[in-house]
Model the fold of this input.
Amino acid sequence: MKTISNYHQRATGIIAAVSMVLFLPCLSLDAQEEIQPYQMPRGIPAPNWGGFDPLNATPPARPAAWPSTAVPGFYFVKASDPAATDTGNPQGTPALPRKTIPATLAAGSYVEVADCATATGLSGVKGTAASPVWIVGSGEAKIQPRDTTSAVYLGDCEYVIVNGLNFDGTGTPTDKASSAWAVGSNCHHIAIRHCTIRNQPAPDFNPTRFTSGGAGAWYSGLSSIVPREGPVSNIVVFGCDYTGNAGGQTLDYESGRHCIIASGKSDGSHIAENIWILNNIMHDNPEDGIQLGESSNSANRSLCRNLFIGGNQITNHGENAIDLKACERVITSQNLISGYRRTSYRPGSVSGSDGTACVLNNDGGGPFETWWLFNTITDSRVAWRNQSGGGDHYFIGNLVTDLKISEGEGAPTSAGKSQGVAYWQNSGANAYFVMNTIHNVHGGIYLFNVNKSALEGNIIHDIVDHTRGWPVNINNSTELLIFANLSYDPDGPIRRDAVSDTDFPDVNPQFVGTEFLKPADFMLKSTSPLLGRKVSLAPYEQAYLLAWGTAINLGFDQSQQAPGASIELPAVIPGPKPPTGLRVNPER
Done:
């Protein structure tokens, strides 16, 4: 028996298990691993399901009477079995399966699914906190019907756990299918756990899809949380694997195949709130990893709120890792984000990306109040671009390294050119940067026309080209606080703009290990001058307390703990379609 405690080890251990057998779901029912309780990423509250733990709860055991004897409340579905029938077979067993999931399921029901021949629409399925309904993958085959609705759709459902299904789109025609799974109107307390989403098709290129041209035949995420006729709340997406879908990062036109979409619905004012996206792997997909909020100038940001993104690996997508549109109250913590490049779309295409990893967009005014805590962003063109029209945005304890530009590009400007910059903003939102480490970039923190801003305890180390990049570039800030920061470059003094030597002294931060190569983990020696200038985190902890109603300790000893996420980027993500590497689209 093996014990797994770290949440990254838990994810990779599960994914490694699925690669051994074709079409296995993410966790075998007979797995012999003792999994320790999941540790929430820093600053993200645990889901509250009234005493039930949607992250750590295990599915009920198979009945001892199986495979031959039916048991009330337990169901088995395998449409591909020649003997499968729904007639006179209300439960189904492995020996005599049902073809479909029953339309009516009582609280506490357990449904084991090997495969389905048609889309599964769960409507009015009502579990309880004490007795949720379980939809569990059997580990035998895949769940991907060939029709035009979601493979699994939940509407008007409560306390349902979808666990370990394998959504594999191999062979699905490009004019069929939609999202692998979707949570629709009037749903609450739904968990999608340990599912695999792979090989989903891209739509055919269709330049007349939008009036400006360039999208595909349909516009649907790989999975979605979108209320249309009623509210959605308390949704968990946990431990899932989205790898190698819809043409991957190099698809050369807009497809709409984001990994996870969540938004409210302005028409009718239906809200999507309290959504956790935790511990997932998203790699080599054509659009955003996560897109939250409506993409409309008339969208109401209050209809998509209380959103928690933590412990995910979000790497090598065609557009962005995280795209925040009209939404509010977002915590993004301890994610590992890597591999974002400028798109190279065919003529007639629209949208695309400049290679920014995380975008705070301006749809509907953009996101309002976001927290970015201890994330790692690497090997991209831009870490954050903030176009939001307002709100407070906090960046604490993050690590940004190795940002890229294309050969011959000019210097970043306030007019939208942000290439190679860790943080770029040209909007009236408030932005606070505390104890972040920025290394090997073409520009550090660029602030244009911001409202309030603070820079405290940050390290900017190694600007690639001293003739074109600044460690800090500030132009028009209504209120500005700068304290206890350092900027340093092994190649010599870095030019500076709008800050003095006192505000941002040119002093070696003294990383552990060699000073002239990339530090191993960016921890500081005990003799670092930065450790002697204590940054007060009390104002930010108080802001968190006022926003979320619970206390937080944001401090960390930089001589004992590295900045950024405490998970590592694997060289290869295993699975039926292994990626070609983490730099699949070299900079052009």
User: Anything to note?
Assistant: The radius of gyration is 24 Å. Confidence is low (pLDDT under 50) at residues 1-33, 211-218, 571-588.
